[in-house]
Amino acid sequence: MEETRTRRVVTHSYVFRSLIFFFLLLGSSSAELTDKGVNYEVLALMGIKNSLVDPHEVLKNWDETAVDPCSWNMVSCSPDGLVITLGAPSQNLSGTLAPSIGNLTNLQTVLLQNNYISGHIPSEIGRLVKLKTLDLSSNNFTGQIPDTLSHSTSLQYLRLNNNTLTGTIPSSLANMTQLTFLDLSYNNLSGPVPRSLAKTFNVMGNPQICPTGTEKDCNGTQPIPMYLSLNNSQNVASSGRSKSRRLAVAFGLSVTCVCLLILGFGFLLWWRRRHNQQVFFDVNVSEQNREDLCLGNLRRFSFKELQAATNNFSSKNLIGKGGFGNVYKGHLQDNSVVAVKRLKDVNAIGGEIQFQMEVEMISLAVHRNLLRLYGFCTTSSERLLVYPYMSNGSVAFRLKAKPVLDWGTRKRIALGAARGLLYLHEQCDPKIIHRDVKAANILLDDFCEAVVGDFGLAKLLDHRESHVTTAVRGTVGHIAPEYLSTGQSSEKTDVFGFGILLLELISGLRALEFGKAANQKGAMLDWVKKVHQEKKLELIVDKDLKNNYDRIEVEEMVQVALLCTQYLPSHRPKMSEVVRMLEGDGLAEKWEASQQRNSETHRSYSRPNEFSSSERYSDLTDDSTLLVQAMELSGPR
Question: Which of 80, 130, 124, 84 minimizes the C-alpha distance to 101?
């Protein structure tokens, strides 16, 4: 009897485990599983998480019991459910990079720059044969560059700069003909540089590297002050007549090839124009046989695909209007929800190639508080950008909607927006100036986390302009005084706009609407200064919050806003300082220094020819249609 009961228990247990395994297979049909029914990509990512120190808990939702990792932060998957992107730049991560990264064999992009990760670069990265982009720059990696990197035969973009790497540059990197960009600058590398490297590469800041390896003393006597080129003049000088002849022949062949390419490209342009086809991106393929085309991490959409997703750009799907174009909600064929921005003034954007270069550059700016660019579409008469759909809309919308944003959420939005701008100003290469920081351009995801929107769109549309902008972009009430008077923008103009954004978060009022009844648009800043001096902060706080806020935290945020909106750009803090102050570090010192400076210069600011901020804006607050069109670029851009 007891033996029969035991057999039944064992049988039920076996059936139960089999059912679990069966459902795991259903839930991850595209992912490979171990013999225990566990997704091997989950195991690999958990190995990476366990070797890292995560002070901000950005990897908190990584769960070893998950069926697949496609819903995890900092992870992106292909339509088949395979991990293709691991991106956690500027997250203060430390610890080491686990060798288990080599088990993510479908990875195409790894972005871990601007952290504090130390230890050796795992040689197992060489297993990632599909890897196209690897950025481990600005960390604390030590040891030698793994020779196995040459096994990543798809690698095109490699940045290992600003670490503490030692040893020589592996000669095997010279065989990576597909590599187009390589940055090894500011390490402790030594020895000669391989004769042939990527098309663009940088070894500046490695004092012990020798330009050619033919020097008598290759131990630090030949520091390299600039970018190395592929063909070094010293090699040519020392090669003799035979090498000169070979170079002459090669030069002749190169010139011939270039001429043929130019003729071929010109013929292609002529042929496509004659057949009324678009010049660069879209290709005519049937929808049934169409495969997903990717440009780096971006997807190229056909115009028909976006037209169908938005129901022919129906007004029912319109979710935003702005100076750069209209935004539509769309549903793709895979049921994903996106926001499609249809840009205005196509002729002002420039040619297809320039548009492609700018879009590629914007796509490299990856941060949790920046709006991610999914893809794009371009035809002879259309330019469209595709972004993820933000279910909670913009901060401007949520401040007026119900339920009311609580004080804790507003603080988190302020800090998230500040971190996004910090990345654009001080960690992005090249740095990007937003030029229209306001509540309507700060979007909120499903968890009300702040996402800075359209951070590269102004640069994309103004690539022909110099640093002095003739047409001022922005919104009345958010524009810095020096930008109005000179048209010249800098990161400090963004700091000014962020200060006004803080006041909008505190008060629940839009800067443009404040003072409208009294014909004093843009007077919010003067009012806040007056109320702050009178110590009547309760007048500033959004009435909908009632008493559900911390008075000390409100006063600190008001102080940060006033520091950001000082009249002289040089007196405003950098975004890195703003982030620290919002985190509770250094505000008292900055505020005291500001008050002392203001008291010393009070007389100069009180002269008859000085104006209040509302008076400075007075020439821009008319209700004329012309002025609104020139200055008000409201709504999600």
Answer: 124
Decide if 436 is catalytic.
yes
Q: Which tens digits make up the pLDDT trace of 392-418?
A: 888 988 988 888 999 999 999 999 999
**Is the omega angle on the peptide bond into residue 403 within 30 degrees of 0, that is, cis?**
yes
Q: Provide the sign of the torsion angle of the four alpha carbons 521, 524, 525, 526, taken in this order.
A: positive
H-only helix segments in 364-490 = 395-400, 407-422, 457-461, 481-486
Q: What is the per-residue pLDDT across 47-104, written as a single tens digit (0 to 9) for each?
A: 999 999 998 888 888 888 877 788 888 888 887 888 988 988 878 899 999 999 999 9
Distant-in-sequence, close-in-space partners of 173: CB < 8 Å, separation ≥ 6: 145, 149, 150, 179, 182, 194, 197
Q: Is the whole-model pTM more than 0.70?
A: no
Mean pLDDT score, 285-314: 70
pLDDT above 90 as % of the chain: 24
159 pLDDT above the threshold of 50: yes
Q: What is the fold of 416-631?
A: Transferase(Phosphotransferase); domain 1 (1.10.510)
For 521, half-sphere exposure in the C-beta direction (CA atoms, 13 angstrom radius) is 18
What's the average model confidence in pLDDT over 498-524?
A: 73
Active-site annotation holder among 68, 183, 436, 542: 436
CA angle 617, 618, 622 (to 5 degrees): 115
What are the sequence ranges of the domains in the chain?
Answer: 28-231, 295-388, 416-631
Helix, strand, or coil (residue 241): helix
- Tokens at residue 116, please? 């504090």
Q: Residue 278 burial (CB < 10 Å; 0-12/13-18/19+)?
A: middle
Class of domain 295-388: alpha beta
In eight-state DSSP terms, residue 595 is H
pLDDT for the residue 138: 86
Pairing of β 337-343 and β 375-378? unpaired
Instruction: Average the pLDDT over 199-211 and give the result.
Output: 78
What is 28-231's CATH topology?
Answer: 3.80.10
